[in-house]
Amino acid sequence: METHFASVAPVEEGHRAHQVEASVRSLPENRQILGAPDMSVQCPSQASDGNRRLPIRIMTRLIARLRKLFQPVTLLLSLLVLAFVIGFFAFSEMVTNMREPKAVEAADGIIVLTGGQARIETAVDLLKAGLGKRLIISGVHPSTKKQTLMRVTEADDALFNCCIDIDRSALDTVGNATESAKWVKAHGYKRIIVVTSNYHMPRSLDELSRAMPNVAFVPYPVVKTELNDNSWVKQGDALRVLMIEYIKYLRSMARAFFLEPHATGG
């Protein structure tokens, strides 16, 4: 009996050792060390979590790359916005500080751009004072009669027949400059007084100077409301008018910069 049990004990111990070795080899981390294939199977919950995280990782990397790509664009846009705001304040300060000159030297002719009764009245007064030989009212609506202009300016028929010309073709400031250039060339004028509202003066002079580069222009701004104490910032209507005119002024300069070289070169 002792001999039988002695022979069985080593067999059982060897079998147990084989089971322990197999268990150790079955661990995933030990399979890689021992060179055995990894036969482990992920749980469905772990696989689904990995699938959910994959799009998040991709989006995170994509956003990081886009940030690097658009950093120069964002900086450029920020600088453009800053330049626009600074330019608007500079433009507004310039036009709101314009004043009707107390004295002005006589010129060959006077150009008034329509857009308000005060403009035309001022221009006719300058003509009556002998500060110009002739006056052109540019941009008059086709339905507006000469008698209406005579009534609002308190000018007689003799003055209109003698020295006042009416332009009904111009529809905007560019048209004002084009039609006025024809008038100036026809009379051979070299020095012109320009009458328009203060906020409209920069763009008007810009367009007129491009249409007539060899003519000297004397600005005579018409100031309807005093806004020189920065009160325009608090007045919604004034702020709106200044912003619209500033955008038009920028558009005028952009058109001249991008289009005129091609027009003159062709």
UniProtKB/TrEMBL annotation:
This is Uncharacterized SAM-binding protein YcdF (DUF218 family). Residues 108-238 form the DUF218 domain. The keyword Transmembrane applies. Keywords: Membrane, Transmembrane, Transmembrane helix. InterPro entries: Cell_Envelope_Assoc, DUF218. Residues 1-20 are annotated as: Disordered. CDD domains: YdcF-like (cd06259). The chain crosses the membrane at residues 69-91. Signal peptide: none annotated. One of its GO terms (cellular component) is plasma membrane. GO terms for biological process: Gram-negative-bacterium-type cell wall biogenesis; peptidoglycan metabolic process.
